[in-house]
């Protein structure tokens, strides 16, 4: 196969996005990093085997979402066993807020993140893919193996919870 | 379309779905239009936070951090206690049910045979017991003769 993007091009174009995606789905930066490495390992194998999807971006996202899903289903023991307070997570050094953080306010930020973590795994996946990755409802349904109506339902509940945290009246 | 839109319909519209009639309603209904914009604003804010800010970490409390090992230890201790009660304690306690059953049946047989003898008016048996320092209320002499002694003293 020729003319397609190289491995390095794909890595440069998608690694950061996938890391953010996995971090949102797993809430653990270390685990997200591991999943991204696994995703690109699978990319390498897929290219060796001659796989050539119409969109590498969508393919990578699908693989990342599935791996995150597998991780969450792996059980509580491995997750608990390796859960430690890493130095970068503890926040020993006070960090300057970026413009978005400064504009929104610390309390609202905390509430939004808390509400996001409280969403069910499915609601989080659907919300991230639909609103952060910009997929259509049908694409989300296909990728997650759900019905379109089910996706809409998850999305509605997720938005309602997050909106309430963001200061909206819905609840 | 004159009825105001539900929240679910609004969210479908924000997600780029929904019907044309619903979109047309937004144009003519200022209240629904205002609600639609408010939902869109909140959603934009959430997306901005999730995309551009770092997750807010709350330091884990000791209880939250150690509830699992603490619970596991408590359950293990309870299981150990139950195991000790069931296996060790019962094994050490001399129950020997066959011996107990045999003793009880012997005892009841003896008691009933003595009572039958008394009921039949066997004077020699009661006289013999009295002469031997036995008592009337307890022909076997196993329970003591407090009542009889008290009667003797009263006399």
Please give a structural write-up.
The complex is a heterodimer of chains A (171) and B (155). With 171 residues, chain A is an all-alpha fold. Chain A has helices at residues 7-26, 29-48, 56-73, 76-81, 87-90, 99-104, 106-118, 121-132, 137-144, 148-165. Chain A contains ten helices and no strands. Chain A starts with 6 loop residues before the first helix and ends in a 6-residue tail after the last helix. The relative contact order of chain A is 0.10. The model of chain A is unreliable at 85-93 (pLDDT under 50). Mean pLDDT of chain B is 75; it is low at 125-134. Helices cover 72% and strands 0% of the residues of chain B. Chain B contains seven helices and no strands. Chain B has helices spanning 7-14, 20-28, 30-52, 62-92, 97-119, 123-131, 146-154. The longest helix of chain B has 31 residues, at 62-92.
Q: What integer value in Å does the Rg of chain A equal?
A: 18 Å
How much helical structure, as a percent, in the residues of chain B? Answer: over 70%
Low-pLDDT stretches of chain A are: 85-93
Order of helices and strands of chain A: HHHHHHHHHH
Main pleated-sheet profile of chain B? none
| Cα-to-Cα separation, first versus last residue of chain A | 52 Å
**Count the strands of chain B?**
0
**Secondary-structure element order of chain B, N to C:** HHHHHHH
Number of discrete helical segments of chain A: 10
The low-confidence parts of chain B are 125-134
Fraction of residues in helix of chain A: over 70%
Average pLDDT figure of chain B? 75
The profile of the biggest β sheet of chain A is: none
Largest interface: A-B, 40 and 28 residues
Question: Can you count the beta strands of chain A?
Answer: 0
Structural class designation of chain A = mainly alpha
Class computed from helices, strands and strand pairing of chain B: mainly alpha
Q: Specify the number of helices of chain B.
A: 7
